[in-house]
Every structure is written in structure tokens, then in C-alpha cells.
Structures
1.
Amino acid sequence: MQKIVIIKYGELSTKKDNIGFFLSTLKNNVAKALEGLPTQIKNDSGRMFVYAAEEYLNAVVAKLQKVFGIYEIIIGYKDDSFDIDIISQNTVDLLKKQNFKTFKIETKRSNKNYELTSMEVSKKVGASVLKNIKELEVDVHNPEVLMEIEIRQKEVLYYSQKIKGLGGYPVGTLGHGLLMLSGGIDSPVAGYLAIKRGIRLEAVYFESPPHTSIQAKNKVQELAKKLAVYNASIKLHIINFTDIQESILRNIPNDYLITIMRRMMYRISERIAKRNHSQILINGESIGQVASQTLTSMKCINAVVNIPVIRPLCCFDKLEIIDLAKKIDTYETSILPYEDCCTIFVPKHPVINPTLEKCEEYEKNIDYEALINTALKNAETILINANDETNKYSDIL
Ligand code: ATP
Ligand code: MG
């Protein structure tokens, strides 16, 4: 018997027509996640197998737990003998190594030509276990160890150890999106959920030096790095927003500052997305969270773009978002106390129900096309890898 890691795909298996594309993408993503570990990965009839020397298997499992599109990660054994006596002996050998009292054997048989039914295999193997390991008992309802046996075309699999995977779709199978990534709690979580549905992310961050600090920028890079764990690497576009923001501050009535500022962010994001073949924008907006996230505000802000805007958190409560942020390990970074460019210009009474007419009228006070073009021309783009040891990021302008 050979000890291996077996990957089950879950929801993926419903993608009948383009399953080949989904699986080859998953295989590439798995290979990328396991880079540096000596492994061999093979797709075979509804399962993916990862072969590695035993000493690497725990590391393999840890990496696979960060790969979307995997429903279950199984540490199991594979053998090419279909002889029922050998199957029984193998099962006895595996169960002998464990310390427990009750067990159950469950057999699946994708090889329908096999001479015994699933039930017959379970019964024969179960009887053999009882005979050979005297202290064990069968418990069909609540066994301590459920030993599963799969009789397949080319091999028999044995396993009792299953670990839940992240689910979702393999990253890259559902296209590309641009995440508006601030240093806050929400946007990294929104990005994570988009990646989960198979979208490969790039990100854009608006900074306003000297009103925002280098620490705020580092924090966003750190958050991008945390997302890169799931996305392989992330291209982060950094836009200097200072001139636009100062111009807004000088020329726009106080209560509309945020509304207009967000319209500018959307305009720039749409152009970056189109330039980089992203099909959608993603952000961390959540209905009602702040004045700029009422339905009327969202309508006024959204009106400046044609590209679809996905808001994975729009119906989440803040506490639910915080729970997720903790789970994906972005929370502690997000709450570091560095100002981002929204918070320093927050008006006392931001408009809750802005109108499009007023937005358009006020924007006539600014030559925003020129400002946007300059900001885009001066964009800094960096590639952030999950494996970067420190905060050193490579320039790929
Ligand atoms: P977060 O929502 O990420 O916690 P926040 O609360 O500071 O940050 P909001 O004012 O709620 O941000 O803005 C809503 C969304 O707009 C953010 O989730 C993010 O997607 C986007 N956004 C805000 N500020 C920036 C920025 N400086 N750069 C890029 N995107 C931003
Ligand atoms: Mg927010």
C-alpha cells in the first residue's frame, strides 16, 4: 500500500461541460501551492492524487487547505490488488495502527464489474477485522473510525482521515476581477470571497501622501500578501490620489466630499480594470454601513461606471465580516491604526441621499479627466507573492 493524499472536488463535479478546464486549472493551482515540495500530482476519474514521500504529507495537506475548489483532503492508502483477502488484510493492517474501540467499514464501488457488491465487501472485510483485532466492535451509527474503501478501475483506496477543504471554485476559472483594497476590515474579506468563487484578483489602492502614511501603504501590501496565499500572487496597483482629493476638498461642498471622492475612485478603478482585462470591480461595501453605502449613495456612485461591481459583503453584518476577517487572518492587520485616505477627509455630515444631478453639477468645478489621467499615468504596480518572507515587493512597472 502507498500512503497518498486524495483530493475530492465537491461542487466542481457538477460542471459537466467544461469540467476539463476546471480540473486542469485546479491541478495547476495545486501544483503552484505545492511548489518547493517534491510531489507528483495526477488527475484520475473524479479524484486528484498527490504522491509525496511520507515526511512531506503533512506539509502537503497544510498547503491544500488554502486551495479553492477542493472539497475534501484525504490522507489515505492506495493498492492495486483487488483480491478480497488482500483488501481485508490491508484494512486489518491499517486499523491495527490506530487506538480506538468501535469501527464501521463503508465501501464504494465505481468499478461496477467487480465481483462483489459494496455491501459484500464491507461485510467480508468487517468480519475479518473482528476476527483479527479482538478488542474492536462494529458500531454502524456512531463509529469512532469510519474506514472507507473505494474499489476503482485501477486501484483500491482506503481512508479514515478526511479534512474539510475550502470549497469554492479553482481560482482563475471564473475570470478576472479588480478588488478595491483599502486598509480596512471589509475589503480583504470581500476579496477572499471573490477568490473563493474562482475569480483571479488584482487590486487597487488609493493613497494620499502625505495625508496617508507609508505605514498605511505597507498595511495594504501586507493585506494583499495575505490574499495572495489564495490567489498565488497579486498585482497591486497603487494610485496617488492626493491631487484629486485635495481638488475635491477645495471645490466640492462638504456634505458631498465622500460621494464625489468615491465616484473618482470608481472611475479610476474601471479604467485600470479594463486596461488589465478584469471583467468586474469588487469592493467591501455593505448596505447601510456608512453614509456612502445607502442605496441612494450606491446608485449615485455606481452611475459613473459601466463595468459590473460585485459587493460580496453587501448583506453581511459588521460582526459577521469581523468573524470572517479573523478566520482568514486579515483582522489583526486591518485594525492597525493607520489612516487611509477616506478617514482624513470625513465630513461631519455626509449626505445620506445624494442626487445624481448635484453630483454632476458639483463635478463641473473640477477638471477631473486631467487629474484622473495623471493619476493613471503615475500608477505604481507591484507584484506581491504569498511566499515573500518580508515586506520586500518587486517592482514590475
Ligand atoms: P473597509 O471597507 O475595507 O473596511 P473602509 O471601511 O475604510 O475599509 P469604506 O469607506 O467602507 O472603506 O469604503 C468601502 C469600500 O471602498 C472599501 O471596502 C474598499 O473596497 C473601497 N475603498 C475605500 N477606500 C479605499 C482606498 N483607499 N483604496 C481602495 N479602495 C478603497
Ligand atoms: Mg467599510
Note: The domain at 176-393 is CATH 3.40.50.620 (Rossmann fold).
2.
Amino acid sequence: MKKVFIRTMGCQMNVYDSLRILDILNNLGYEETEAYEDSDLILVNTCHIREKASEKVFSELGRYSKLKEDKPDLIIVVTGCVVQAEGEDFLERAPFVDIALGPQNYHHLPEKLELIGRKLKKQVIEADFPVQTKFDFLPSPGSRTYSSYLAIQEGCDRFCSYCVVPYTRGAEYSRPAKDIIKEAEIMTTSGVKEITLLGQNVNAWHGIGTNGEPWRLEDLINRLADIPNLLRIRFITSYPSDMTSELLNCFTSQKKLMPYLHLPVQSGSDKILRAMNRRYTSSEYLDIIFKLRDLCPEIAISSDFIVGFPGEEDKDFEQTLDLVNKVDFASSFSFKYSPRPGTPGAAMKGQIPEEIKSSRLDVLQSLLQRQQERFNYNCIGKVLPVLLEHEGKKTGQLCGRSPYLQNVNLEADKKLLGEIIPVKITGANLNSLRGEQAI
Ligand code: 5AD
Ligand code: SF4
């Protein structure tokens, strides 16, 4: 077997894509290795969402190029959003890369490897949006862990003024329901118990159902829930204006849908939301949250925030803090605004100095961390159903996930891996819970 080392940066969609690429490579006789020094092929799946993520790609590639000096047959492949954003310039910046493929082109990896292997080409790049989607060409998913991602929607038509996704991932595309159901069935046959439906704007998913009727996300979730061995369903990432009442109701009516919603708000200021081209106000966002809490009081809400967007004044930032206090988030991600070339935000007046971005981020993150800690501490004493996913670092330790997506560590028999068991929570910190098996 030849060996491939895969390095994945960025979002869950990239994690999913890397697994699909591994499915392709498995069919070509490659097995995965965790040591890049031992590999015949290094694949870096890149992220372009913020400047830091993008720069990390080039520093990391530098390390692999050194290895190639000693191992000239080593093949270096780069996929993902950085390739899409940089286009032909990418190979100039990274001349030691053999193959560069955009997010919609990675199904062509076998033929590109053939070109390089037979020395018919020195370097190849493909970064376009083909008419026929890659999903029609990908092999069946190979074996997965007990919890797996499944991409159901990709790309975005919303054009938030800070975001590269519409340019790197392309227009909004919903995969057909029947293909999604088939992929979910294959996954569950190989032991998957929990599926997280993925999309950059996942709640915009739409399609024709197995009954010939137009379906929205809640219909798809309900159909997937009919798969007997599929025990848990989640979806990520949702856009607030696409949170229909039918989808909100699904959190009470569909017991396999976990009580966790990641709903990025980005800012609590209506002025900034308008400048970001987000099509909701802070009070509309709060209405969704309160409605959802009425329907499903235990729901854990998580969010993304950007601080220091152009034009953000102290009073706008305070409105973000106000919103955070009103919602009380279970977890969240927050970032300094990073101007991305080609997006409207990068050309806006009123760019915010780095020091102000940093100090606002500190204030916001400490508030969000306090909320996350409190959410976790409040679980102490409760018995939560935990899906046991893998062994922990310590002997005898297993790690799993609560319904609210918290990491839970406990001592339990390895034979229980893949099961959902009741766990009495005995301790908590910012990032995880501790517990013991409750009988
Ligand atoms: N700068 C900072 N954060 C960004 N995000 C997206 N684009 C940018 C940017 N240019 C954040 C948003 C989004 C998350 C995936 O990344 O909060 O929800
Ligand atoms: Fe990064 Fe966005 Fe691309 Fe995901 S889709 S890898 S977050 S740029």
C-alpha cells in the first residue's frame, strides 16, 4: 500500500471533503498515515476564510517542500478554498506543488495523479465550477467513525460583505434527497450512529422528496430519522432568515434531532448587520432564539461573531455584548474581522485598527467563555445520554458527546464504543465534562 498524509484546515466542510478524498485514494491503493515523513503523497486541504488561515497554508507547505528535496518522488497535492481563490497564481507561489484542485474539482484527482505519475505534466491546477457536480462522481463513502458529517448543501448566494465562501465554494447547491438518503444509509450500515448534515447555508437546503413533493430541511431530517440505526441528527451551519417555523418545530417533534443549534449572528448592531449584508436585525435574531427556547427549553445555542467590521463603533460593539447577555450562549466562535481580497468589506471605509479589534475580541471572548463555563457547570449532577465515540488519552477512558455537543470523558468498557449510554456528570470545565456511567 502507498501512504497518504492528509492535513485538513478550516471548517467541517473541509473535514468532510478530506474524507471523500480519502475514499478516492483508498480506491487507488493508498492508506492513511499520521507521519508525513513516511508518506508517498501529502495532501493539504486549505481554508481561505481569514488571512491567518490562508497564510498558514504557505508556511505549512514550506515544511513539506523540504521533505520533497530528499524524496523527489513525493507527490504534493493541495485542495480547497485557497486554490480556488488564488487560481493560477497558486502554483507560482508554491512551485513544488504537483496538483492543485479547487473544492469542486477534487473528484478529478485520479486522472491528475496519472498525469503526474506518468510524467506527462509537471504541475496541474483545476479550479472551476463544473456544470455537473462532483457528488455524481465520488465513490461510496468508506467506513466512518460513529459520528460523521454528510454534506447536503454547498456554496452560498447570500454574499455577506466579509465572506469569501460565495467565491470559493460557488453558488448555492442542494444535493438531491435520494442521494443524501443513500449516503446516510451506507454510513449507518458501516456503524455510524450520528450524522451532522453539512452546508455553508444548510437550512437553505431544498429539493424534491421521495414522495415527489418539494422538501425543505425538516422533511429531509424526518426522512433520515426513519433509518433505524441512525440515532442522532444535527445540522450546521444555519442562516437566521432561513430558520422557518417548520424547522424550529422539528426540534420538538423529531426526537432524533439533537437539542443544539449553531446560528451565527455575527453582530448585535443593526447598523453593522446591514453593512455586513446580513438580512435580519438583532431583534429578529432574538425572536428566533426565544421562539426556539419556548419550543425546546433545553436547546443549546451557539454562534459566530466578528468584531471590528468596518464602521463598528463602541456603541455597536456594546450592542453585540447586550445581545450576548440576552441569549446566553452554550458555546461560540469569535473572530477579528479579516479583510478578504475581492469582498466588498475589504474596500469599505472605516477599517478598524488592529489594537481595537484585539481589545474588543478579548472582552467578547471572556464574556462568551463565562457563559460556556456556566452552561457546562449547570450540567453537573444531571444524567445525559452520551454517544461514546473513541478511546481517550488515559487508559480505560472513553470520550463521547452529550446531546448539546459537549465532550464528555468517563471510564467505561471499550465494548461500549458506538453506544449511547446514560452518564452522570460529575465535573466540568470550559471545554469538556467528566462523568461516570449511570446504571
Ligand atoms: N473575517 C473574520 N471572520 C470571518 N468569518 C467569515 N469571514 C470572515 C472574515 N472575513 C467568520 C464568520 C463565519 C465563520 C465561519 O467565520 O463568523 O460565521
Ligand atoms: Fe474555510 Fe470557508 Fe472554505 Fe470552509 S468553506 S474551508 S471555512 S473558506
Note: The domain at 2-126 is CATH 3.40.50.12160 (Rossmann fold).
